[in-house]
Amino acid sequence: MSAQHTVDLQRSFSSGSDATSSEKPFSRSFFDKNNTVQRGIYLKVLFGGVFALVLVIFAIFSIFWGAIWKTPERNLDGWIVDFDGGLIGQTVVEALTSQQVSGLGKVTWSTVPASQFPDGLGQLTTDVVEQKTWAAIAIHTGSTTRLQASLTTPNASYDGSDAITVYGAEARNENAFRSLIKPSIASSCVFIHQAQAALDMITKKFALQMAAQQSSQSSNLAALLATSPQTLVAPVSFTFNNLVPFDMPVASAVTFVGLIYQLILSFFIVMICNGARDAASLNRNLSLRSLIVTRFVSSFGAYFFVSLFYALVSLAFQLDFSRKFGHSGFLVFWMLNWIGMLSVGLALESLMTLLTVKFIPFFMIIWIIVNVSVCIFPIEVLPVFFRYGYAVPFYNVSHAVRCIVFGTKNTVALNFGILIIWAAISCITLPLIQSFVRRRDIAQASRTPPPPMAREKTFEQQEA
To answer: What's the CA gap between 441 and 60, in Å, rounded?
Structure first.
């Protein structure tokens, strides 16, 4: 009696699948009438995903486009320091701060008294390297005196470019340096368009003035043209001093493009860890505490080794890490990349539990765009909306790398701190999200009836 009852139950459970199992597999066309349900599901998922991507394009891609649409939204700041105090210094200051010149380029010049630099040019150049200003124009001490002396007593060695020096730091942001900037005196020296236009205007003005003054002194004019014609042709000029040049092109791989690669590598690690947990059924078999610890240990360990080999690639291509921290530079660079990968990767790891494999790519796109948008040009020239960039991982990794590789302003401690805060936030949210999902899974499991085989075993146990 009990055996017959069990057989009847087995037949009832398998009757629904017999009809479909009798059909030959791989035989339907897409528009087959028996494929109506599956076709509807497919089209729903397809069009739903495409529509979601369209929303991402308009809502998220617009952030990146907005970062370069009207750049620069605001001018960079620049200093004018008159160490001369004579005619040349006064003329240059008046010209660069006039309304006519202020509209020529993307730098707003402000006059800084020479008394603020008791150590002279050395202190001024240090301030430029320490990013207190984007550029500085120095009118050197005695420039007017040398010009007047050369006019009175022609000097064949007179060089008008000794009067003014423009200081900048290319490695601070090479994109701004090259895009808001045009070639200056030499092909290897570039500077902001405004500076060249304004200083060229000043040079011509001085040349005309000097020519007019000397034309009334025919005897002196002849001697001047014979001995020192440059005193009349170019009485005042300028040279450019690039204090921190971006002289290692391979560094572009770690200051911008490589940051995207880092996030992609982090995403791969998240997917690998998730696939490993699913393959081993750890999400259902481990306790909540063990599962959280497993995820943390796996992520920290994987990022540790992957960041090492990422750093070794840069070392293999002879990227110099010794300019700021000596032989410890590579170790600092490695740790920076490790913490950087944790800051972006743990965010993906945390949200993977909630968004699942289906939707985590959408967050990754958002994560990339939000980070990349503030790394192309200085935040100072972007719209106010992009001030959030000071706190995102990419911006801080990029600034720290520039310090390690080129020796720019040392903000490495601050950058590490912000990256660690991002990692700490993810270390808090991951257990919270995992706990929420675990409670949800337990509730669903309690409402789901056992599978047929489990029911059969239960009936057999009852009959026995």
So the answer is: 32
288 vs 146, 285, 300, CA distance in Å?
80, 9, 18
Determine the Cα–Cα distance for residues 433 and 300; give it in Å rounded to an integer.
18
pLDDT of 45 above 60? yes
| Half-sphere CA count of 14, side-chain side, radius 13 A | 11
Give the pLDDT band of residue 213 (cuts 50, 70, 90). low
Q: Over 90: is that where the pLDDT of 402 sits?
A: yes
Exposure of 204 in the CB half-sphere (CA atoms within 13 A): 6
Are 296 and 378 a contacting pair, CB within 8 Å? no
Nearest one of 214, 239, 240, 244 to 229, comparing CA atoms: 214
DSSP state of 180: S
- Average the pLDDT over 372-398 and give the result: 93
* 190-204, 325-339, 399-413, 424-438: range with lowest mean pLDDT: 190-204
Q: Which helix (H) or strand (E) holds 181?
A: strand 181-183
Peptide bond into 72 cis (omega under 30): yes
Rounded Cα distance between 401 and 350, Å, is: 26
CA angle (20, 23, 29) in 5-degree steps: 105
